Amino acid sequence: MTRALVIAPQWIGDAVMTEPLLRRLHARGEVITVGALPWVAPVYRAMAQVAEVVELPFAHGGLQWAARRSMAAKMRGRFDVAYVGPNSLKSALLPWWAGIPKRVGYQGESRYWVLNRRLPNPPPGDRPPMVAFYSALSGDSGVEQDRPQLQLAAATVDAALHELQLTRQGYYVFAPGAEFGPAKRWPASHFAVLSEQLALPVVLLGSAKESALCAEIAHAVNAIRPGHCLNWAGRTSLDQALATIAAAKAMVSNDSGLMHVAAAFGIPQVAIFGSSSPLHTPPLNTLAHVVWLKNDPLYQPPLDCAPCFARTCPLGHTRCLVDVQPDDVLRYL
Fold first, then answer.
1. Could you report the per-residue pLDDT of 148-192, keeping only the tens digit for each?
2. Global pTM?
3. What ranges in the chain are assigned the alpha helix state H?
C-alpha cells in the first residue's frame, strides 16, 4: 500500500481539475490524503477516492515558516509519496520538511532541492489544458481526455436543500462573479435580464466579495418579480453551495471555479467566456454550452484582442462580454 499526500491548489476551479489525478492514483492502489486550504477542502470531500482531507492552517501570501514546519512535523513518517499541485516554492516545503521520500511536482520557483521527481514546466503559451497538466503528475500517459467528476451523497444534498428550503430541479443557479477580475464577468444587467425571463427562481452564489454584485442583480430582478432572485453570495458555506449546484435545474456562470464545480457534477450549464479561453480551462461536461464571441464567425468586427487574459479590459470596452446578449444564453436553458 502506497500512502500518498496531495498538496492541493488554492483555487476552487483548480481543485476540481485535480480530481482525475486523484482518481488515477486511487486506481493503482494509492491511499490518498489531501492537504488543502479550508476554502477548497469541501471540494475534496466530494471526491470518493480521497481517504482523508487535512485542512492546512495557512493564509494567502507569505511563507509562514513556523506553521508549515509544525504541520510537517505532524506528517513525518505518514506518507511514501507527495504530489504537489501548485507551482510555488512554499507549497513544496511541507512534503520536504516532512521527509516524504518521493516528492513529485513541476519544475520552477527554486524547487530543485525540495522536489526529487520534477516534470518540465511548459512555457505559459504552450501549457496544456489544466486537467491534463495536473493529471500528468501521475506519470501516466493518455491524460488528455481526463474529465473531473464530483459526487455528493443523496442524503447530504437533501439535508442542504432542506436547510435552504429548495427542491431538486426547482431552481437555476447563477454564479456572476469571477475572482480573477472584471474582464471575466458578464455584466450584472445581463444576468438580471436573463433571470427575469426564467420560469423557475434563481439562486445567486458567490463569495462575500461578490455579495454587492449579486445584490445589484437581485434588486433589479425582484423589483419586477418579487422574490424571484435569491442572493446567497457570502451567505452559504462551500459545502452548501456544492449541494445547491448539484441539485440545480441548470447553471449560468462566467469562467470561474463554480463553473468547474457544475461541470464535475454533470448538470446542464452555460459558461460565458470573455478575456479567457475555453481552449485552456473549458467546462468538461457533455451538458455544457460555451458562449464565446471569439469563435463566433457571425460576430463582427472579429475579436482580435481575445483572449487577452487580462484582469480588466486593456481597451476599456469589454465588448467580448458586453455584446453577449441574454437571449444568446437563454437559448440553451
1. 999 999 999 999 999 999 999 999 999 999 877 788 999 999 999
2. 0.94
3. 12-17, 19-27, 41-44, 65-75, 89-97, 130-135, 154-164, 188-196, 211-224, 238-246, 257-265, 319-322, 326-330
